[in-house]
Specification:
By secondary structure, the protein is an all-beta fold. The radius of gyration is 18 Å and the shape is globular. This is Protein giant-lens.
Length: 193
């Protein structure tokens, strides 16, 4: 409800998560210690922002204090879900330019309050492969939440010359795929147009 309800950020925790996929949406995660405030600007070059596809992760600390990740080796961030639905994301290093983060490990842990999960992400270079005929160029995973849809996108290949890959799951060239009703998730595949 207010800033005081938020936990104090641990070092290199994401304090604001900004989703820019459709209408920009800020999700407060924690509050910075002392009199420091967490950036909520849509400006990705404020010195406190790590960008991943359509998301901006804002940190209390300057991101230049984070080392550069090595492809496929280093964990760029850890995302923790606690049994009480609270989440925490801790940055460890920043992915090189033009790379994407992908999940490398999911670990369950038991607490007195119930089951929680820890997800680890690493960096991969963006695919330079050309799309083959009838092969999707982008995947969309859409999770329905109470007030909005949370969308993750993954680019699989580059469209041939004079073609483009849909950037939104409601664009022409996107076909609905499998639905996971228990998680309110639906997958979509985008094809070169």
């Amino acid at each position: 409800k207010s800033e005081d309800d938020l936990p104090t950020c641990s070092p290199f925790s994401v304090c604001n998560k900004i989703d820019t996929y459709e209408t920009p949406r800020i999700e407060r995660q924690c509050r910075c210690a002392g009199s420091q405030t967490c950036s909520s600007t849509l400006q990705p070059y404020d010195g406190h922002t790590v960008t991943d596809k359509t998301r901006q992760f804002k940190l209390c600390e300057p991101i230049k204090k984070l080392p550069k990740c090595r492809y496929f080796r280093d964990v760029t961030w850890t995302f923790i879900t606690f049994p009480d639905n609270v989440t925490q994301q801790i940055m460890h290093c920043t992915c090189p330019k033009n790379s994407v983060a992908y999940i490398i490990k999911r670990q369950a842990y038991q607490t007195d309050q119930g089951l929680g999960f820890q997800y680890s992400f690493a960096c991969s270079p963006q695919s330079r492969l050309r799309c083959q005929r009838k092969e999707p160029c982008r995947l969309f995973t859409v999770k329905k939440r109470p007030q909005f849809e949370e969308v993750n996108t993954n680019t699989l290949c580059q469209c041939p010359h004079a073609h483009y890959c849909p950037s939104h799951h409601k664009d022409p060239g996107v076909i609905p795929g499998k639905a996971y009703t228990e998680d309110s998730i639906r997958a979509y595949s985008g094809y070169c147009m």
